């Protein structure tokens, strides 16, 4: 994901379900989120350190213990060969079956997930899944210098995009999603009691679109076969 808290807004309930089933999940954050927050009394470096701590705490709420960082500047992420290589490196290290990422497409129905960093990370990550990570001749230094063999991830889950073809019922995991987002206090504390209501509004709409019964909550994705 591009920033700390992106995975929690988009997919924390789904991730909690995965880890409950014994699926190992690794987070990779492209930036430290140093351009976020509302506190002028701390430096941007202090904000970056704070947001790293918040993301680690949020990850624990949904059963994730491995959080990795690339350290790109928040708000200035572009689709570059360096970014593709850095994501490819982690794919070859972790060797995942499934890669969750922001959608590279702009969502005109709901603009907030379409932050430029999100779209850039989604585009670079999708390129890293196909063709880079599986091609031993892409970024050959990863194999020659680091011993990282090519790896094919079987599917991609896109979050926040305009096209949805898969919903996950997270009703049982809503409280853990909420706790994960509250761990990002620098980003969500100002929402107060409005945060649960806001989340329920989004998630109820997803559940209705999925044909689930009233009162259910769901996260939405576009699942792409990349095997």
TrEMBL record:
It holds the Pfam family PIG-L. Transmembrane segments: none annotated. GO terms for molecular function: hydrolase activity, acting on carbon-nitrogen (but not peptide) bonds, in linear amides. It comes from the Bacteria. The keyword Ion transport does not apply. Keywords: Zinc. This is PIG-L family deacetylase.
């Amino acid at each position: 994901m591009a920033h700390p808290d992106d995975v929690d807004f988009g997919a924390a309930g789904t991730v909690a379900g995965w880890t409950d089933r014994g699926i190992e999940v690794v987070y990779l954050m492209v930036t430290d989120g140093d351009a976020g927050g509302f506190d002028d009394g701390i430096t941007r470096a202090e904000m970056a350190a704070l947001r790293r701590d918040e993301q680690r705490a949020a990850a624990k709420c949904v059963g994730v213990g491995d959080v990795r960082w690339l350290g790109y500047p928040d708000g200035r992420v572009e689709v570059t060969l360096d970014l593709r290589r850095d994501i490819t490196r982690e794919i070859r290290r972790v060797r995942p079956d499934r890669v969750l990422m922001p959608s590279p497409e702009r969502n005109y129905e709901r603009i907030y997930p379409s932050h430029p960093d999100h779209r850039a990370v989604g585009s670079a990550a999708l390129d890293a899944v196909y063709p880079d990570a599986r091609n031993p001749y892409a970024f050959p230094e990863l194999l020659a210098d680091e011993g990282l063999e090519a790896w094919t991830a079987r599917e991609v889950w896109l979050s926040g995009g305009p096209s949805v073809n898969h919903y996950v019922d997270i009703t049982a995991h809503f409280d853990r999603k909420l706790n994960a987002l509250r761990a990002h206090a620098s980003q969500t504390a100002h929402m107060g009691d409005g945060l649960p209501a806001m989340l329920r509004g989004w998630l109820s709409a997803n559940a209705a679109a999925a044909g689930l019964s009233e009162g259910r909550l769901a996260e939405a994705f576009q699942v792409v076969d990349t095997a």
